[in-house]
Amino acid sequence: MYLLYYDILQYQDATLKLIEKNFDVKNLPDPNHDTDEVLKSVEVAMAPLGFSFNREKIDRCTNLKIIASSTLSVPHIDIEYAHSKGIRVCYLGSEKDFLETITPTAELAWGLVIAVTRKIPWAHRAVCSGEWNGRSFGRQTPRMLSAMTLGIVGLGRLGSLVASYGKAFGMKVYYYSPSSRNSAYERCQTLEELARCSDIVSVHAQHKPETEGLINNKFMVAMKPGSFIINTSRGELIDESALLNSLESGHLGGASLDVLADEYNSDFKLRLIDGPIVKYARVHDNLILTPHYGGATVDAWVTTEARTINLILELQE
């Protein structure tokens, strides 16, 4: 069976050996290098985020049986059209038991909570500049985490993990989640109620058309003065213009983002340095940006990639 693998996926050596053991592999650098000759021959295609696997591409893959992605969601794949053509879509979204073992995104989210509320990057920078004045940073930290409230948007796997970390830190935890319930935390009926209750909001909702801009100006205005937003989910969930306005006005105390709204656009990296959110972060001490590496630990890569390949093999049986 012919499998199309794109080098941009940067799978681990162990995963590549697993693929080569079970498939005849066709390699391309990325989907911009697709050719009709290659697409007509493949039966399994790996689908990198940031590249649309739409109707046009599906129609070019005349022998395709499986589209696969080592992700929890597949906004880049036209699932409905693929299914209408008898093509299976293989990804990790329904692998609940397996995903319970994959924790690095929640761990980074909590790291970003502590980093932004305690001004850790700027304190480190001050020491490297020869300054040793911890009280100056203490004056910028009004309260202990244990005296603050945590709001979770989306109490799924990752939201639940971050909620449990908050509880371990002695925080009162609120959540907004239409499809989940947990009596260990306080459930809010609306997003605005969550905003009003929370000193720190951590976003863990799924990216769907209806959730784009979920955390908008109305939400931020409802938040307490000096509160914080953390996002390790998808950049599209936050209205970045409204976020910058809230940070610049001082209404929000800070934000930490591991994801940005347009990061899957083809020219994103070319525009990144001159984009408004990076320009703001360079000269302010209330916004932390990290390069979407929440799930990026070597052991997590190895296990999620291998699980994806094994799911493909199971579909073939």
Question: How would you sum up this structure, described in words?
Answer:
The chain has 317 residues and is α/β, with parallel strands linked by helices. The protein folds into 2 domains: 2-95 and 298-316, Rossmann fold (3-Layer(aba) Sandwich), CATH 3.40.50; 104-289, 3-Layer(aba) Sandwich (Rossmann fold). Helices cover 40% and strands 15% of the residues. The protein has 15 helices and 12 strands. A 7-stranded parallel beta sheet has the order 8-7-6-9-10-11-12, sandwiched between helices. The chain has a 5-stranded parallel beta sheet with strand order 2-1-3-4-5. α1 (13-22) links the parallel β1 and β2 (24-28).
Based on the coordinates given, report the CATH architecture of the largest domain: 3-Layer(aba) Sandwich
Q: How many angstroms does the end-to-end distance come to?
A: 13 Å
- What is the typical, i.e. mean, pLDDT? 96
Number of strands: 12
Strand content: 15-25%
What quaternary form is this? single chain
Shape: elongated
Structural class: alpha/beta
Helix/strand order, N-terminal first: EHEHEHEHEHHHHEHEEHEHEHEHHEH
CATH class of the largest domain: Alpha Beta
> Uncertain spans, ≥5 residues at pLDDT below 50?
none
| Helix run count | 15
Strand order of the largest sheet: 8-7-6-9-10-11-12
Please estimate the helix content.
25-40%
Supply the CATH superfamily name of the largest domain.
NAD(P)-binding Rossmann-like Domain
